[in-house]
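Hypothesis: this fold can be encoded by more than one sequence.
Test: take the structure tokens below, design a sequence, compare later.
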């Protein structure tokens, strides 16, 4: 494995069970205030940039203090996990609506003209974080399939869907490649709409379409590169609610494991019957896969104890091959910038529990 941090991770893999975050950390109050003030025209762009820099520095320093062998930038400067490529683009506000179980919704914008180009690529986040830490960095990117929802079902005059999809694949490839080139140890494709798609289309047709589209992006990478690329699935997480927890994992996983990646980050801590899901995973995973099992539930307000985490890891290790097992959080702690349902302190305490509990399990397993 080439690239910055590759050697560190090989060493850590040889020593223990790998553990890494999904991505987002709740933004500090000072940053949220600066964003609100800037949007209201009450503060300068420079003051906003200062608030972003301060949040990023603080987040990386505190991430390092958790002992996490792989860290992220906490998505401090992303507006959300899904919409960062749309910064600065001219879009209509009335796109696809995502309903959550508690009744609140999030709405995607709608593309009105081509050609489709990302306003921001994830590599810019990796570069900013790279300058602040020597730890291996994981970079999350949004899936091509999520952004495919920007194209209206009624079409766009002069910009057919096929042309949009071709542009989207180019841009999604550039997003991942830019993050790898900027020094990301691993890149994670956020595919939260995978499980949601089964709610919208229980036949699985939409899900298979999503997987096919994402594989067209992944086809652009070598086998070695794909070992550094992963996918994250979950039932969504926003304001302590979910959008597809009522969809059975068993419907998602067979198609998910068709995705041409080396790493899978799977929500598991909040799953009512994790053993059943893990047994299905064990049947679906290939020898070149690493499965990062969620051992922390970001939605649960109580901080998990390290013993609880250890027991979750041991449960997974009883079903999956330990050499192919890693741990992660079930989801990001604040996928949308304005979601303050979890305190920053709680998020870091949960990450510390993940790191400590994973180490306890590794010692017990003798790896
Ligand atoms: Zn998630």
């Amino acid at each position: 494995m080439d690239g910055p941090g590759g050697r560190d991770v090989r060493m850590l893999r040889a020593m223990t069970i790998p553990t890494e975050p999904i991505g987002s950390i709740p933004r500090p109050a000072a940053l949220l205030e600066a964003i609100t003030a800037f949007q209201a025209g009450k503060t300068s762009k420079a003051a906003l940039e200062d608030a972003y820099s301060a949040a990023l520095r603080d987040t990386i320093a505190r991430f390092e203090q958790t002992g996490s062998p792989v860290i992220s930038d906490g998505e401090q400067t992303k507006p959300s996990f899904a919409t960062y490529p749309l910064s600065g683009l001219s879009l209509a506000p009335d796109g696809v609506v995502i309903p959550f179980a508690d009744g609140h919704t999030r709405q995607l914008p709608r593309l009105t003209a081509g050609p489709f180009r990302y306003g921001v690529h994830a590599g810019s986040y990796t570069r900013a974080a790279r300058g602040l830490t020597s730890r291996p960095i994981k970079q999350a990117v949004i899936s091509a399939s999520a952004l495919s929802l920007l194209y209206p079902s009624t079409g766009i005059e002069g910009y057919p869907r096929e042309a949009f999809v071709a542009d989207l694949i180019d841009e999604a490839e550039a997003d991942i490649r830019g993050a790898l080139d900027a020094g990301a140890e691993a890149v994670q494709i956020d595919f939260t709409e995978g499980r949601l798609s089964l709610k919208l289309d229980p036949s699985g047709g939409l899900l298979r379409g999503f997987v096919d589209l994402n594989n067209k992006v992944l086809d652009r990478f070598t086998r070695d590169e794909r070992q550094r690329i992963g996918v994250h699935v979950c039932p969504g997480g926003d304001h302590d609610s979910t959008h597809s927890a009522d969809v059975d994992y068993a419907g998602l996983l067979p198609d998910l494991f068709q995705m041409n990646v080396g790493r899978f980050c799977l929500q598991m801590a909040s799953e009512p019957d994790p053993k059943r899901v893990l047994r299905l995973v064990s049947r679906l995973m290939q020898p070149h896969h690493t499965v990062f099992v969620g051992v922390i539930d970001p939605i649960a307000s109580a901080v998990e104890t390290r013993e609880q985490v250890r027991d979750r890891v041991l449960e997974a290790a009883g079903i999956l091959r330990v050499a192919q097992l890693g741990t992660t959080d079930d989801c990001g702690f604040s996928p949308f910038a304005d979601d303050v349902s979890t305190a920053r302190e709680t998020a870091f305490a949960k990450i510390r529990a993940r790191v400590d509990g994973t180490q306890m399990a590794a010692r017990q397993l003798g790896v």
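The mean pLDDT is 94. The first strand starts at residue 97 and ends at 99.
Hypothesis status: open.
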